[in-house]
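CHAIN AND CONFORMATION:

***
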Amino acid sequence: MEDARAERARIGSELDGTDEAVVSTDGGRSVSYAEYGASDGTPLVFLHGTPGSRLLGELFDEDARRSGVRLLALDRPGYGRSSPWPTRTLADTGEFVAAVLDDAGVSRAGVVGFSGGGPHALALAATRGDLVREVDVVAGATPPSLRSTRPTALRLLEVLAGTAPLLVRGGLRAQRWFAERASPSFVVSQYTTSDGQAELSDDVAELVKRDFVEALARSRRGFVTESRLLAREWDFPVTEVDRRVRLWHGGRDSNVPVEDARRMAERLPNARLTAFEEADHLHSLLRSGSRVLVRQASAAD
């Protein structure tokens, strides 16, 4: 364990002092994660969006410290510093989460999934419930059978990810190159409205940009893999999620309409939906973050 901590400190020193590690799964794949919040707090796994990275966990660093939460934010396969796993399914989530928990010395944790991380959080609870205390899903994607409408751009990407993955990866490489050099608004506009952009602090906008750039820095395979996964029916039944689930969603979310979240809540055995009527996709995360941390911390008491 001391060697693992030394490795986290070494990697973190390269990236603005953040406490980070790269560990191996049982399948021999590398998975990267960062720690935020209270080092001795209640463990909570954070699963980023599609695309996304461990860096997004920094949004909640201060709130996690105040709430007594140890936030473990990982890069899913093919994002950031984690190696690609093109053949994985949602039901494989337990393999890379278990590797992170084992390295962190944690046997059981709460889980929060944002956007494309939502299905992964539910899959973890359904297939590896022994690792999960409670689940929070924020602006989470839903199975195709529960969807009402989808933005045209997202539907096109899902089709191309299955039929022309090289084209998608080339487009993402160019998008990442431009995003690194452009104003944060180039990235933020994918997750919020023009009014929502105006409400964001410069620090939050810059972090969302860094998260996007880091997600695609070394590979674009993670996004292609997940676009295919989320375009088809999930490979686990949501009725097998026997943990408490809290859904948080924005009434103005154009990426995942709130009506889809309501249908999801009806099918989960033990779920409750909180809707922020004026919030869009990104602001659902910003509005719910502190509440998620407080409730996850209290659930461990």
